[in-house]
Amino acid sequence: MTKEFDRAVFESTLTKRFFYVPSFSIYGGVAGLYDYGPIGSVLQQNLINIWRKHFVIEEDMLEMDGAIITPSEVLKTSGHVEKFTDYMCRDVKTNEVFRADHLVEGILEMRIEESKLAKQAASGEGAGAEKAKKGGKGKVPKGAVVLSEEVEKKYEEILAQIDNFNGDQLGEIIKEYEIRNPATNNEVTEPVAFNLMFDSSIGPTGNLKGYLRPETAQAQFVNFQRLYEFNNKKMPFASAMVGKSFRNEISPRAGLLRVREFTMAEIEHYVDPLKKDHPKYEEVKEIHLNFLPAEVQESGSSTTVSMSIGEAVEKKIVNNQTLGYFLGRIYLFLAKIGIDETRLRFRQHMSNEMAHYATDCWDAEIKSSYGWVECVGCADRSAYDLTAHSRRTGVNLCAQEELEIPIVYDALVCVFNKRLFGPKFKQNAKKIQEALEALPQEQLAEIKKELDSAGKCSASLGLPEPVEITSDLLTIEMQNFKKSVREYTPNVIEPSFGIGRILYSLLEHSYYTRPDDASRTVFAFNPQISPIKCLVLPLLTGPAFSASLNHITKTLRSAGVAARIDDASSASIGRRYARNDELGIPFAITIDQLTVSENLVTLRERDSCQQIRANVDTIINIVIDIVNGKSSWEDVLKSHPTLSSDS
Amino acid sequence: MTKEFDRAVFESTLTKRFFYVPSFSIYGGVAGLYDYGPIGSVLQQNLINIWRKHFVIEEDMLEMDGAIITPSEVLKTSGHVEKFTDYMCRDVKTNEVFRADHLVEGILEMRIEESKLAKQAASGEGAGAEKAKKGGKGKVPKGAVVLSEEVEKKYEEILAQIDNFNGDQLGEIIKEYEIRNPATNNEVTEPVAFNLMFDSSIGPTGNLKGYLRPETAQAQFVNFQRLYEFNNKKMPFASAMVGKSFRNEISPRAGLLRVREFTMAEIEHYVDPLKKDHPKYEEVKEIHLNFLPAEVQESGSSTTVSMSIGEAVEKKIVNNQTLGYFLGRIYLFLAKIGIDETRLRFRQHMSNEMAHYATDCWDAEIKSSYGWVECVGCADRSAYDLTAHSRRTGVNLCAQEELEIPIVYDALVCVFNKRLFGPKFKQNAKKIQEALEALPQEQLAEIKKELDSAGKCSASLGLPEPVEITSDLLTIEMQNFKKSVREYTPNVIEPSFGIGRILYSLLEHSYYTRPDDASRTVFAFNPQISPIKCLVLPLLTGPAFSASLNHITKTLRSAGVAARIDDASSASIGRRYARNDELGIPFAITIDQLTVSENLVTLRERDSCQQIRANVDTIINIVIDIVNGKSSWEDVLKSHPTLSSDS
């Protein structure tokens, strides 16, 4: 199917049938913003509902709904104010703006392509030769340069690492390879960092700066203590949040895949760093996934390895059970909603592409016409965020473990002579005291030795000047301790779902055309995720028909089953089936003369086009049961013979 | 219950059990932003899911999910850039900011109260006298002034109209009555308009201004044509959207009732202005509501009238069937989720409080400890928005009606002599031509008369100068027309739900304390809306107990039923029931020795504290059926005798 896939036709169907469209299009639209119509929005909702059942309910997670507007202090702590940036440059004359890495990428790819065409034209062979002959729009562009093998290799190297360059490096590449605005041939400015968060001001004073959140995670972390208490202080546990996040892309592209406003579903699983096993690990251990480990990629290959999660964890390809468990659950979720398993792989991040907070990361990547796209990230954020927020606010964000056997140990401690210490160091006293108390045991032992022998000691305590301490100010003693509670900052394993990307992939994977008629497009949504569950088609009008129509739609809708009526008597039944197949509606009930005379209706299944006929209420119950997952079309066929198939 | 209601205790329960808390509280919090915890967020979700089933599915509405970030052009057209403001003033010395109407209101209310206390202190009677004697915190404040009857009456009048003053009027009141910052006694500045939208900049150039949407409605209006087409061009129909909207309040107060970020659910029902009847009107006609019509309020009363929707529509108290239909559906929805019907009324807006776009408006107001609060607005926005967007963009936002009997009529039309007309008026030619074509028939008739008689005519066409037209340039002719399609801009009836306000009201209405122990608080959520459906309590630990525990929780959760385990063996069963009643969990399954020996468990209902005992799977199915609305506790008791009731 992928081979014949025509994205232009596909996208025009999505727009025509209002799955989603650029926002505010009657005002010319805004890049990177989309409105989801009746199909797109309900598909997204159903996807989220399945997600909630699969993760939040089945795994007993603590869901939250936090604020979108986030004060800058919080995002300074998380690192987003400093690091959540892309590089941009401008055309020096027209001021047109480019994302620097995309500009370099685009130009180098174009030069390689043009060089290939020009070479072919020169040699008289291949596509370039054809184009050179034809002239016109397809001809080898003027100024196309044949690249030396060395330059071409250099270009390929740059393209392979394009995600890893910082602004200075991009600036050097732009200078060295004379990258210009392709539209004007003007030079572009040095790349500057552009923060990707939308900012605003909270309240009327203008003094409180805020941002639209770039992820839902931070609102979960800052509530860690409340979540931990809600969970009766039991570890491990997870919180979860579904909601919109924002990213002020420099130049949005690739439809739903890179947008400025997007729905995320994020899980933060808090775990003891010493106990990364998972109580339900056994349930996923035997599942086979397509893995693409970092090692394989670093060796230059992108061949996936199929193995069981159990094997991957045992071989330390996947770091721990908890990570493995979530990879398995992510797989089960994606399969459940209808993602094609053969177009799904789990790719490990290489060390140079990891986010600033992550220590290990696996992406669930789904293949579409845009290539392999990250749709779910599963990162081990270690203790990064909780530690940073705790340090910044002074609030304890730790978990406690009661030790069955208390730990008894000796340790050196500082005993200060407060009467002398304060007056001696004045405003620095507190700082020096804290620095001494924070010293590791070995250093304390050294100081003790010097104080005991020489009666004084000069210590560099991270202050501008070394401090001289005398034995009248400080005694260092060995004391005995007993600890019955172990306190630790939990590590966080974070499966983070890009709902829009999953939804787009699902649309591509669900799309097909009827073998006998390429103009008849169908979306093969399964009955659980399909936005509209049942079409109701009256073949004639009149009171008898309306009564049946009302009974059927009212009964279905009262059971929470979305039903659509297509009663345009001007359109043929085939035409009506076709235009509703395009909305992915799995079932259609047709009301005809036999309904009026014998209370019988037909039920048609979308993909097979098979039909059965039965009593109205029997058919209604069949639809409700399938939608609720209590039955399937195959089950139904066992007790109901099919009529002749329609087309 | 309301009488004994202690809001401080109530709110501390909400915070302690993480229903919702101020956002980013470890950073000191941000006024007007709240994070919903595991109970609050899922309660909100369930509320929205019931809303979706009740409205979107049962009424076959077209749901959308539009962008939050909205370009300023759209909100200029809707009137928000100009009119979505409150007035604020500042302390002239400290710069502290006040919302002007709230400041006036607060000060006048305080003066009236102080005057009352001072009068009582002087006369030696009442609360003021008590306070005057006691002194200390409760004493009559220094500087309390006894107001003359006339001044007090004036204050009362101002307070009654506080929502209706513009900035200048508020400024005059502030001057005339010497309103100052109560904390510093400094004067305050003239009130200035403050726009309540959060603004931001879209993209990297800084040239495209955007706002966070103040309502979801506009994203629906700008997509009207796509929605209409999706509905196969049938009228009437409705679109709907659920999502966050934003309002940069000057000084947020009253908890969830006035916040900066809130979830709305809005329906836009598009209807032919000539046909405001509703096909399902019969279904709600007999429902009795408590009405508070504008007329009653204008006569100074706030006594509600109970009558049927049918009667209210017939008497023109409610303008039309469609409005009446939605009032009925709103009532049914609120009753379904658990709002106390005796604390619900429908209040009509008086003409001076209507929003700029509305022609009629009814609010569903719910009574809580904050008084009567608007929770659902149901406005007739007429054709305001569609007309404005269409005019601004030039895009047709009309519906078409095929006329069964075409209309045949004669009309005057302009026939231009293009060869002469263009050269004569040059760059103004097009403008003049359009102005002439847009003239009403009477004016055309006059011009025709003059041209026919004098051969020329001077016409003021809305241009700076009158234009002289001669009969060689223009002929006005009577022509015959036949119209088989009637085109009109639909009117919009908009039920708009403030989800946070409904949720807060529901919390107050659901809250009670056990008659025998005021410290044991309970939330009486019904099984459909309750965030957690079932508590599972193992009374002992060990493998046999864990096996039952796992079986029960896994079965419930697989059926989508949220279950919580409380296995803290250190806490007594009574204590465990109590702390989970506080989360509103309707059912509790207890695992005890009889579970291990005979596979029996008990099931306890939260409000009655009644218990039954039965086989594990029987009990599980009872819970699932009640949660899915297929059965009720009363039904269950018919076939299962209760055990002795616990406390």
Automatic annotation (TrEMBL), chains A, B:
GO biological process: mitochondrial glycyl-tRNA aminoacylation
GO cellular component terms, A-Z: mitochondrion
Keywords: Aminoacyl-tRNA synthetase, ATP-binding, Cytoplasm, Ligase, Nucleotide-binding, Protein biosynthesis, Transferase
Keyword Ribosomal protein (UniProt): no
EC number: 6.1.1.14
Annotated InterPro entries: aa-tRNA-synth_II, aa-tRNA-synth_II/BPL/LPL, Anticodon-bd, Anticodon-bd_dom_sf, Gly-tRNA_synthase/POLG2, GlyRS-like_core, tRNA-synt_gly
Domain Aminoacyl-transfer RNA synthetases class-II family profile, first and last residues per copy: 155-515
Catalytic activity: 2 ATP + H(+) = P(1),P(4)-bis(5'-adenosyl) tetraphosphate + diphosphate
MF annotations from Gene Ontology: ATP binding; glycine-tRNA ligase activity; transferase activity
Record PROSITE patterns: AA_TRNA_LIGASE_II
Location(s), subcellular: Cytoplasm
Location, primary (coarse class): cytoplasm
Domain of life per record: Eukaryota
Pfam families: HGTP_anticodon
Family, similarity comment: Belongs to the class-II aminoacyl-tRNA synthetase family.
Record's subunit section: Homodimer.
Name listed for the protein in its UniProt record: glycine--tRNA ligase
Organism ancestry: Eukaryota, Fungi, Fungi incertae sedis, Zoopagomycota, Kickxellomycotina
